[in-house]
Amino acid sequence: MMESCCCPVKFSALHSAQGVSPSYTCRINSNAFQHKTLSLPSQQFIQLTHRQCLYNGVWPFLSSKTHRWAVYAESGQKSWDFGRFFQTLYFFNGPPNPAKIIASLLEKVSSSTSIESVEKMEISDIVLVAGATGGVGRRVVDILRKQGLPVRALVRNKQKARTMLGPDVDLVVGDITKEETLAPEYFKGVKKVINAVSVIVGPKEGDTPDREKYSQGIKFFEPEIKGDSPEKVEYIGMRNLINAVQSRTGLRDGKLLFGLKGNLSGKLFWGALDDVVMGGVSESTFQIDPSGSEDGGPTGLFKGTVSTANNGGFTSIRTKNFSIPEDLSAYDGIEMRVKGDGRRYKLIVRTSSDWDTVGYTASFDTKDGQWQTIKIPFSSLRPVFRARTKDDAPPFDPSHIFSLQLMYSKFEYDGKLNPTFVEGAFQLPFSSIRAYINEPLTPRFVHVSSAGVTRPGRPGLDLSKQPPAVRLNKELDFILTYKLKGEDLIRESGIPYTIVRPCALTEEPAGADLIFDQGDNITGKISREEVARICIAALGSPYACNKTFEVKSTIPFSEPFTVDPSNPPPEKDYDVYFKTLKEGITGKEALEGNPAPYIIQPICATCEAILNTI
Ligand SMILES: NC(=O)c1ccc[n+]([C@@H]2O[C@H](COP(=O)([O-])OP(=O)(O)OC[C@H]3O[C@@H](n4cnc5c(N)ncnc54)[C@H](OP(=O)(O)O)[C@@H]3O)[C@@H](O)[C@H]2O)c1
């Protein structure tokens, strides 16, 4: 039964019916609904001026039970299905709920602040440096800042970090071994990460406060693990860090929002949203076609019949609001796989949970009978409200996506018409909707690991020629084993990555000639400053993406490397090195009995002699 309502109800555009301007008002007493003739002058449609009620899912006169009434419009003389109208509202807004009225009123009262904060929010590409107080990490922070890039330092000790990095560095305090310390707000605006965190190694006899002994090299002292174990830092810590940043850095294959492989079909709840909300008679549905996809598998289907009767002319399917808004700030746009029919459709993305709100919209053309990938960059979405471009709308905020909508409409925007519009039946199979990152991909997570991580347990290895960490892996609580496990986590995470494996680190300046290698075979030394530069260069290089490599300088251990400050070596183009690297080589091939081709590096007699001593 309907609840009665004392006030007359005025209907208005409930939805941005593309190309139609709302002006008509029609008064109906709720208890006199059956077979009502509505007079709908041309270019006008039903309004509900008790908008607050409908927008927020609060209907003044309808029980949760839906009814089917036919209402006739004089213009076009087609019966308008009042029952469908209310079903639509019910699907998207749920039953009437007094609590929502209060919530909505409160929201409206405080809306000025929320709009302000949306407008102020900028999508910044902050580089998070984890392990920013370490030998490599602090140099990374320094160089990034000198380059004028936005940096945030994740540190354990604020005081130490302030002294080391300066008073104005953006600091967040956390311990990667403790998940709860990695607060989500630390990662706002972060798009890239350089991870130089490491389990702490130090001399058994102790070190100076600034870790002088450690810095000069592990081969000069008897090392032990200080503090948290390698398992905790290199493996569990890495897992925590990846979990904390993944939604910010994004995934190389994109984020699937809709797709019928696996269990994803249930994730989005699509409902029809047709011109019935403005008095029209067009009709559409979302269906699953069990064998309609390219590979004969299931696909989503947006199908229906569109009619211009009663000044209508659009159909659409819209998802219910996501229970948790999607954060797509790591991505550059939305990509759909659709089978076209030669017509122009629209994708509408909403960044507000409100029902009747600005929809960030893009039209896309399809090719008849062809499966095609449609890419809609976020930058191409225009704010549209009731078919009018809203120039004063806040910029599109990809961090708060509440719903998606696919539309087939007679109308474009601002009074223009869809040039491909044809009345009648249509269908648009769509097998996936995902957020994508622009090509070419560049790394979003650069990790400083270590040469030697695949060497413990490698058959046929002459340990006497290996660095101390390889020989002492067991004594150092399996430091390299856990570093490798940590690397595997990042390789498997789906985040575009680079893993840099330096040989023994020195405090020498950058600038020596370098040897990049893969397969985890080389030994030697390299400056921390150089490693920091390599990490930063990797962040911007498609050639470094999804690569794991070792690096050392050509300078033998026995030879100190110095630079004349008045005549520094030229800046390196690290792309020259990155271009030589391949994906998929880690050195684990040797452990798995499938050795990667060993690239023989020229080695001088002095180096060989030194290597034999460490
Ligand atoms: N030493 C070598 O010869 C050598 C050779 C090859 C590869 N590597 C590797 O190269 C990388 C960089 O070396 P490095 O000399 O720069 O290392 P480092 O100076 O020891 O720096 C380690 C950093 O990690 C931080 N850290 C440790 N545990 C943490 C935790 N639970 N949460 C957050 N931060 C934590 C430390 O913070 P605190 O300042 O608070 O301690 C410090 O900032 C390391 O992975 C290292 O193993 C070293």
TrEMBL record:
<feature type="domain" description="NADH:ubiquinone oxidoreductase intermediate-associated protein 30">
    <location>
        <begin position="270"/>
        <end position="428"/>
    </location>
</feature>
<dbReference type="Pfam" id="PF08547">
    <property type="entry name" value="CIA30"/>
</dbReference>
<dbReference type="InterPro" id="IPR036291">
    <property type="entry name" value="NAD(P)-bd_dom_sf"/>
</dbReference>
<feature type="domain" description="NAD(P)-binding">
    <location>
        <begin position="131"/>
        <end position="204"/>
    </location>
</feature>
<dbReference type="InterPro" id="IPR013857">
    <property type="entry name" value="NADH-UbQ_OxRdtase-assoc_prot30"/>
</dbReference>
<dbReference type="Pfam" id="PF13460">
    <property type="entry name" value="NAD_binding_10"/>
</dbReference>
<dbReference type="InterPro" id="IPR016040">
    <property type="entry name" value="NAD(P)-bd_dom"/>
</dbReference>
<dbReference type="InterPro" id="IPR008979">
    <property type="entry name" value="Galactose-bd-like_sf"/>
</dbReference>
<feature type="domain" description="NAD(P)-binding">
    <location>
        <begin position="443"/>
        <end position="542"/>
    </location>
</feature>
<protein>
    <recommendedName>
        <fullName>NADH:ubiquinone oxidoreductase intermediate-associated protein 30 domain-containing protein</fullName>
    </recommendedName>
</protein>
